[in-house]
Amino acid sequence: MALNSKLTKLKVDPNTQVNLADWTTSIKPLYSSKKKHQELLNELHEELGALQDILYAHNRYALLLILQGIDSAGKGSIIKHVMTGINPQGCQVYSFQQPSAEDLDHDFLWRSNNRLPERGRIGIFDRSYYEEVTAVRVIPGLLEQQHLPMELLDPTKFWQERFQDIVNLESHLHRNGTRTVKIFLHLSKEEQRQRLLERIDEPKKNWKISRADIEARQHWEAFQTAYAECLSATSTEHSPWYIVPADDKLNAQLLVSKIVTETMKTLQMNYPIATEAHRKELAEIREALEKE
After folding, report:
1. What is the pLDDT confidence band of residue 292, given thresholds at 50, 70 and 90?
2. Residue 250 in contact with residue 36, Cβ under 8 Å?
3. SS percent in the chain: helix, strand, coil, step 5
4. Is the dihedral of CA 151, 155, 161, 162 positive or negative?
5. Structure letter (DSSP) for residue 154
6. Which end of the chain is more exposed for a tag (fewer CB within 10 A), N or C?
7. DSSP reduced 3-state for 62
8. Where are the alpha helices (DSSP H) in 176-244?
9. What residue stretch is flagged as signal peptide (predicted)?
10. Residue 28 above 60 pLDDT?
């Protein structure tokens, strides 16, 4: 599938000053029909499943997939449809909702650090520590809940320091074998409106919407600005952001699948090679089985 050229255009190069208005939320369909979309997705599932099997056996790398975006951007859809082909034994998914009282009494990276994937596994964050430099920055009152000393809340440097903390964390993870793939699902305001209305109109989706979604929507421009600054400050060579057009969920599924697959291909991993002692042991086991 000729998607590699598309991925290059989605990647945020280090030191890029992002203006989300310059990044499209919609591209032409990468599939000719829903049937063709499923065929393409199945091919990627098969490839991703094979790579995950090697990742698990090699047991030296981990993969962290971070999904960010405004409400209804399609994070759940990505998890459901993109990760279908992988073995649940080697994957863990965490959805970061409102922090608990315990979370708020720790540093802002604490609850995420406790859920990072072990070597050999894929970890998926539905939202993440990036909420701490977007939602916490935009929604009134959230920062105050974190009980920080007043002298540390200098607005001229507070958010830049948090960006640097995140970059430092991801550099640390990279040096310890965890590869971080960061996806920003870029949704238009009109498409979000349609999806929110759909959640109201379809009874089985009513549970997905609350007044908080509408209140957050009232801060649309502030969120766009906060995300733009975040993407600009935290996209690095080893942990880049990808801004994925999200108005078409089927396109987004293909693009994210390809991003994850291509990232895993860069890992220098293989199935463990049996040592001489292990080969001898295998020969003895074979002999015992053949004598039965």
Report:
1. confident
2. no
3. 55, 10, 35
4. positive
5. -
6. C
7. strand
8. 189-201, 211-217, 220-234
9. none
10. yes
What does the pLDDT read at residue 82?
A: 87
pLDDT for residue 93 is more than 60: yes
pLDDT over 90 percentage in the chain: 89
2 band by pLDDT with thresholds 50, 70 and 90: low
How far apart are the C-alpha atoms of 276 and 292, rounded to whole Å? Answer: 25
Say if residues 97 and 131 touch (Cβ distance below 8 Å).
Answer: no
Cα–Cα nearest to 268, from 66, 45, 23, 58: 58
Pairing assessment for the beta strands 11-12 and 241-245 based on DSSP bridges: antiparallel
Q: Which two tokens stand for residue 61?
A: 């790398």
Going by their DSSP bridges, the two strands 241-245 and 91-95 should be labelled as: unpaired
For residue 148, give the 3-state DSSP assignment. coil
- Using DSSP, how many helices (H) and how many strands (E) does the chain show? 12, 6
Tokens for 160?
Answer: 């830049």
Q: Domains in the chain, start-ordered, CATH in brackets?
A: 4-290 (3.40.50.300)
pTM score > 0.90 for this model?
yes
Give the whole-angstrom CA distance, residue 240 versus residue 267: 16
Structure confidence at residue 26 (pLDDT): 97
d(CA 68, CA 246): 11
